Amino acid sequence: MSLSVSQLQYRRLYLLSLVLGIGGSFQYGIQVSMMASAAEHVQSFVNDTWMERYAAPVDASTSMLIWSFVVSVFSLGAWAGAVHSGSLPVTYGRKKALLFNNVVAVVAALLMVFCRMARSFEMILLARFLYGYNVGLGLSVHLMYLGECAPKKRRGFLTLTGSIFIAAGKVTGQIIGLRELLGSDSAWPYLLASSGVPAVVQFVSLLFFPESPRYLYIDKGDTEASKTALHWLWQEDDLKQEEDDMRSERESVQGEKAKTVLDVLRSRCVRWQLLALAIPCAGVQFCGNNALYFYAFDIFREAGVAEDKMHYLSIGIGATEFVTISLCVSTARSYTGYSFEMTTDLYPWIPYVNISLIFTVICIYGLGPSGVSMALPADLFLQAWRPSAYVCSGTINWVGMFLIGMLFPYIVGAIGQFCFLIFVAYCIFSSAFMLYFVPETKGKSMIEIAEAFNKLNYKHKHTEKEPNMLQTQF
């Protein structure tokens, strides 16, 4: 009974997580997965457009380069969005930053709808860049906003929903990409424009939700507005513990402005937090998971899968990730299993063995790296440092994705079925680091987490550092 009452009490907070997820991390998932279904049609469109302009077919190397850039320009846009996630949410607030971000997605969707009419594959490139910007900004602000609205006992679970929405977006992109739906030669522009729908849904829904309570209290100093937002979201009258936590965090900042990325990189007081953020975030890309989605059909062909089965097999991969992420608990130990499973590609005896190993890799990814990386920025950094921490994590994530998107098809062409061996070393390294150097954050306040990392940041000092020193010492 008490569980039901608690769930009912936080129903508005759960609804906020749904709204943020639809226009935030869901967009990431759908953009990653739908490109495999659209690949054949976009490449054909590029070739037809090239013929109309230059009266000659595009050669194979140019076609591969253009397609690789269509895939990877998304990451460049996402990096630009991640960079702005350190300034827009601080200047205008989390809510207004997301409202602006949804407008960007709608513009990108319109470019996709009209690209074929205009006979311009450059419009696809521009739209992919804008979609990337939307995802880079939206993913960071989604997790920032949600983490600041959640009580500490539910913060880990709610930030983990970001991974669940990514997986849901991947499955959705694979389903609507079926030839029977929007994956046909006549409907592919609407497939690529489908991200405009979640953007409109979030834009309208977000108007009914308050700004982040922590942003109002710590950044703006508006105590009453913060209390009102907390009461509306939590449906609680006794907010003293949360107010004390926010007061302690605001006092630790001592009136300082939000830190810059350069501050994060130079400051000793967040050195281990930065390492604990950077290594797992890079692991999300360099474990090879997104390569499976970007070039799923190429990997399936290499594994010997029949052409008419590839679309349905990709849906199975997306559904597997969704289920495993939904079952995920906050643990870093799955990095170890991920490394082990990928080494088994050394023995590709039969195609179906390779496919079963791909499903195993997706399961282990969902149980560990995906969920862990989502929760880290909200858990590891105090308010003044958090926006720049999201810039750092976003930069690592999107630059890594750009490199994977550009280079992976060439890697597959060069070493074939051994292509995933390049990810093994990083997976082992990430596993060891997470197991031995990252302290537990579950159930702790942000000040308590900062104190735990303080022992690593100043482990050679004999004097104990106060929490406020974490914000001021460089």
From TrEMBL:
It is a multi-pass membrane protein. Residues 17-442 form the Major facilitator superfamily (MFS) profile domain. One of its GO terms (biological process) is dehydroascorbic acid transport. It is found in: Cell membrane, Sarcolemma; Cell membrane. Its main location: membrane. PANTHER family: MAJOR FACILITATOR SUPERFAMILY (MFS) PROFILE DOMAIN-CONTAINING PROTEIN, SOLUTE CARRIER FAMILY 2. This is Solute carrier family 2, facilitated glucose transporter member 5. It comes from Gadus morhua.
